[in-house]
Design goal:
Layout: E1 4-7, E2 12-15, E3 25-30, H1 41-59, E4 63-68, H2 75-84, H3 88-105, H4 120-135, E5 139-141, E6 147-149, E7 188-192, E8 209-211, H5 213-225, E9 229-235, H6 239-254, E10 259-265, E11 268-270, E12 273-274, H7 285-290, H8 295-303, E13 311-313, H9 315-339, H10 349-353, H11 355-361, H12 366-385, H13 391-408, H14 419-433, H15 437-449, E14 452-457, E15 460-465
Parallel strand pairs: 3-4, 3-9, 9-10, 11-13
Antiparallel strand pairs: 1-2, 5-6, 6-7, 7-8, 11-12, 14-15
Helix pairs in contact: 1-8, 1-13, 2-3, 4-5, 4-6, 5-6, 8-9, 9-13, 11-12, 14-15
This protein binds one RNA strand of 75 nucleotides through helix 1, strand 9, helix 6, strand 12 and helix 9.
Length: about 475
RNA sequence: GGCGGGGUAGCCAAGUGGUAAGGCCGGGCUCUGCAAAAGCCCUAUGCGUCGGUUCGAUUCCGACCCUCGCCUCCA
């Protein structure tokens, strides 16, 4: 099966081929967070889907160039800064910092660049693009000194969302701008400064103001990746109007097809409803970490369901992830013990077949991929139980597990066992050899009190870190 | 109202025109000084409902029910 992905534009799964004539480089732009708050795990579902996409493309030998923007100026960031009485940049910085911390905790590969909307270089580019759009008749300055994109000038507006604009139902969220616009669907490229914006404003040919949200992505994507990009990702809620607007602005500026492949992930749900800051039903990563869950466990939950399906977040699901990971950890540990006497790996049929990688080729079918992985776990555990797996085969499988983890990134934290713990285990082993069960049990309790669980396997004592 | 996802065992979930992967939970067994852990085994005659096509449908077609999302803040 060829590598293929679902394209939101055509609503079908299509074979993937990069724009790069060399067939090597893949350019990806992904919409990042608005830094007015800590991102919640629903946001991170999107970033983990994008991480899976990038890692699988790399597994298939592509070189991925990826940009993720940070929206650090909009209504909410401005409101937050005003309420706190601090400059905008000072308000957003802690949320930027926590975002990067969370990416690390979730083992999400950093993008090659994380441009910020307020970067003067990008503001200048946005102003430049808006000027071009006005000159070409695609945008106009309204009476309130804001600039709007004229959707009537771009006939294919609505193609991505498959919306017929004549049939749009008024949403009820009508703002006062409506009276300034030629068409209710026209969207702001430049928002004239008003009293709610405080000191947040930049000079422009149309007076002081700030950029609209959509133009930010068009400017930064083309600045950093060029006029045409391979893949643009985001949550389904970005399809309309955000990505629709990006297409219109960018293509009207460049005259080129902006994005070859649009990929969108479904929402993370909680209690059967979309997880959203506005709904107040969200969990942040730091909340979950504080409850004793690990970033790795949260990553498993978020990565294990197909990206185009809504995923209902539950603590039962997190507990299930913990158990599943322990099974994988134990498998890796067994393979590792067996492989310790082997210098080089031997091919195993399952590695050649690579059912895991082939499942991901089909629009990132992670469920089938994990199914294949757990099949391999069971089959090789059975072989190890029967003493039918050689150390060289174990080494080969361990290498394969390592390759799979260049995609999944679910390997256990490397744990260094402190010397005093090792000493206690040694004492206990001696006590057991002397059949001094009382002392053995006392030492086991002592180890547990220090956070380590001892398991007496037929190969001797094994230690694992206890979890809360 | 328009558009788009979903409805498969207690929970999550893959998949196929020929009779249902995998994970969690649960049960059994093995190992074991005890305990814990781990490994193995078992667990859906049925895939929202009702029709239709077919030798045969969970998979194709039609209708309907339920549910979630988008329709200019939103990953």
């Amino acid at each position: 099966m060829p590598l293929q992905f679902h394209n939101t534009l055509t609503r079908s799964v299509e074979p993937f081929a990069p724009l790069d004539p060399g067939g090597k480089t893949v350019k990806i732009y992904t919409c990042g967070p608005t830094v007015y708050n800590h991102a919640h795990i629903g946001n991170f579902r999107a970033y983990i889907f994008e991480d899976l996409l990038q890692r699988h493309l790399e597994y298939r030998g592509f070189h991925v160039e990826r940009v993720m923007n940070l929206t650090d100026v909009d209504d909410k960031t401005i409101r937050g800064a005003l309420e706190k009485g601090v400059p905008l940049a000072e308000f957003t910085q802690p949320f930027k910092d926590s975002f990067f911390e969370d990416l690390r905790a979730l083992r999400i590969k950093p993008a090659d660049s994380f441009p910020c909307a307020t970067d003067p270089v990008h503001i200048a580019r946005m102003i430049d693009m808006i000027g071009k759009l006005i000159a070409a008749g695609h945008a106009y300055e309204a009476e309130d000194k804001s600039v709007y994109f004229r959707i009537a000038s771009f006939p294919s507006y609505g193609q991505l969302a498959h919306l017929n604009l004549d049939e749009l139902r008024p949403s009820g969220r009508v703002s006062s701008d409506e009276y300034e616009k030629e068409n209710i669907g026209d969207f702001a490229l430049w928002k004239a400064h008003d009293e709610h914006d405080g000191h947040v404003a930049w000079d422009s040919p149309w007076g002081r103001g700030r950029p609209g949200w959509h133009i930010e992505c068009s400017a930064m994507a083309t600045a950093l990746l060029g006029d045409r990009i391979d893949i643009h990702c985001g949550g389904v809620d970005n399809i309309f109007p955000h990505h629709e607007a990006e297409i219109a602005q960018t293509e009207c500026c460049t005259g080129l097809k902006f994005v070859n492949l649009w990929m969108h992930c479904a929402h993370l749900m909680v209690d059967g409803r979309k997880m959203a800051k506005s709904a107040g039903n969200f969990h942040t990563l730091r909340d979950l970490l504080a409850k004793g869950w690990s970033g790795r466990e949260v990553r498993y939950v978020l990565i294990a369901a197909h990206y185009r399906l809504p995923l209902n977040f539950t603590f039962e699901g997190l507990a299930g992830a913990r158990s599943a990971l322990q099974r994988l950890d134990e498998w890796g540990r067994r393979l590792s013990d067996l492989a310790s006497t082997s210098a080089s790996g031997t091919p195993h049929p399952a590695i050649e077949e690579d059912a895991f990688g082939r499942a991901l080729d089909d629009d990132l079918n992670i469920s089938a991929a994990l199914g294949a992985l757990f099949d391999l776990v069971r089959d090789t555990n059975r072989a190890m139980d029967a003493g039918e797996l050689s150390p060289d085969q174990a080494r080969g499988l361990l290498d394969y597990w390592g390759r799979i983890n260049t995609i999944l990134a679910l390997e256990p934290e490397s744990e260094t066992i402190p010397g005093d713990i090792t000493a206690l285990v040694g004492e206990r082993t001696a006590a057991r050899a002397a059949r001094d069960w009382g002392r053995s049990d006392m030492l086991r309790d002592e180890l547990l009190a220090r956070g380590w669980i001892v398991k007496d396997t037929k190969d001797g004592a094994k230690l694992t870190r206890s979890v809360d």
